Amino acid sequence: MSDDSVYNLETTLQTSGVGHATPMGWVLFDSDLVVRDCNHAATALLAMTRDEFVGHALDSLPWRAEDEHGVPLADDANPVRVTCRTGQCVFGTTIGLSVRGRAFRWLSVNTYPAMVDGVQIGVLASYYDVTELIQNRRNLEVALAVIRIVTVVESETEYFEALCETLHTKGRYAVVFITEGVGRATTIRYASGMVDELSRAMAELATSTKTGSGLTGTAAQTGVAQVANTTDMPLVREWANEMESLGLHSAIALPFAAHERRLVLNVFSNHENEFDDWTIQGLHAVVYEIEFDLSHVRSVQRLSEALTGTLRALTAISELRDPYTAGHHRHVPDLSVAIALELGEHRRVAEMIGQAAEVHDIGKMSIPAEILTRPGKLNPLEFELMRKHPTTGSDIMIESGLPSPIPEVARQHHERLDGSGYPDGLRGEAISRPARIVAVADVVEAMSHHRPYRSSLGIDEALAEIARGAGTLYDADVVNACHRVFAAGFQFEGTTSRA
Asked: What are all long-range contacts of 73-76, with beta carbons under 8 Å and residues at least 24 apart?
């Protein structure tokens, strides 16, 4: 149908039975995907003129489309093409449109077959601005992710690395980095995103930052956030070519204090005019959160150091009373951590299991030293006294206020899956996972080292023992992980062979 009169937006909306919404931008494409008509809302949406729309094919429109993950929208995923190809409506596709020199917008797109006399003549597309909705959701996602960081890190370095990665992935910014110092002393400390590309461009970046007159330098010296929403702004003009070559079109630098240090959070975007008032407000909230979190991280770090010191002191006291097993308190934690990591536990969880393993035998402090160090077999009374050490150790840990899993491991490391262990005869899942890990490490270490009452049986015999008890005495997954750890080359400290 070649009559141009059919390509009238109002007529087509009526004949196609599509309701007309005033704030909605409507664009009418013909069957070749050339824009034949549009309403005022469509041109106002991206500050484009009617001449920039009408007469232009979809591929030649002056915008870059991407999906919600920032990936360029594939041609076959464009809802206009889908409807043109299939004749089916497509509803609620969210796309980002970037037009050079204009603010990036998020649009919700619906497409309908344009019908005249029962014949599809093209595609009707409606565009509705959902930028504020997407930004609000993204700001909330970023804020929640930043808040969670402090719960999983133990040092400032871990915190800053996680912060940069979170802003890069959750905020979908191209580059995020933190600098320290002012002028020629400016140094990038942490970064995420286009890190390699950024490093290659650092020589050029120095022309603006190291004189202290660029975006980062000005933020550091004034203590006030600096924004450059285009590359022709004075704060980034000296680095404009490098930014353009990396596809970076806007940036913000937010100064903050970290104890005695002055740092700057630098965020770069692939889009022009990325940093509107709402986005800037969200990033300021992140900076306020950083300053609060760092105090918390430092406090946690000090508590962790205090806990480590306490455990080492307890271990040292225990070793003084039982010198024959001095290495036991170092070897069992090492193997326990290795097994936990092999089982896929988070590093922090594995370290906590290692801490629990370090003092798993602390209850033996209540046992007379002559019993601990005597060669030969214990009599029934002495053996019964020895069996009380898990309960005593657990009570000490609880009384001291030490965190989980330390008390549980102290009490349960002699429990066995079939209920034959002590002191409570626990079975299966009733035994905590950390205790099941330490139980295996404890047996392997004890069998493979000398004791007052026998010589070392060797690693091979120790591994054979836990293999025989897998699934009945010991957790089979833990046993298998232990075998894999030794197969990969694990050795106890000071051991040179598998003897």
From this structure: none
What is the set of domains in the chain, with CATH numbers? 4-129 (3.30.450.20), 134-298 (3.30.450.40), 322-487 (1.10.3210.10)
pLDDT reported for residue 5: 62
Q: Estimate to the nearest angstrom the gap between the alpha carbon of 59 and the chain centroid.
A: 37
Of the candidates 32, 39, 51, 34, the one whose C-alpha atom is nearest the C-alpha of residue 9 is 39
The span from the CA of 163 to the CA of 147, in Å, is: 10
Identity (one letter) of the amino acid at 296?
H
pLDDT digits (tens, 9 = 90+) for 279-329: 888 888 888 888 777 776 666 666 565 566 666 666 665 655 555 555 667
The pair of three-digit structure tokens given for residue 229, joined into one six-digit string: 């929403």
Task: Evaluate if pTM is beyond 0.70.
Answer: no
Q: Each residue of 435-455: pLDDT tens digit?
A: 999 999 999 988 887 665 556
- What distances in angstroms separate CA 465 from CA 184, 413, 448, 479, one per listed residue? 63, 16, 11, 10
What's the residue count for the chain?
A: 499
Backbone angles phi, psi at 12, to 5 degrees: -65, -40
Residue 471 CB contacts under 8 Å (≥ 6 apart), including other chains: 417
- Separation between Cα atoms, residue 124 and residue 206, nearest integer Å: 50
Phi-psi region of 259 (alpha: psi -120 to 50; beta: other; left: phi over 0): left
Phi, psi angles (nearest 5°) of residue 346 = -60, 145
d(C-alpha 436, C-alpha 415), whole Å: 8
Grouping H, G, I as helix, E, B as strand and the rest as coil, residue 112 is strand
Please compute, for residue 188, the number of CA atoms within 13 A of its CA located in the half-sphere on the CB side: 22
DSSP tag of 427: B
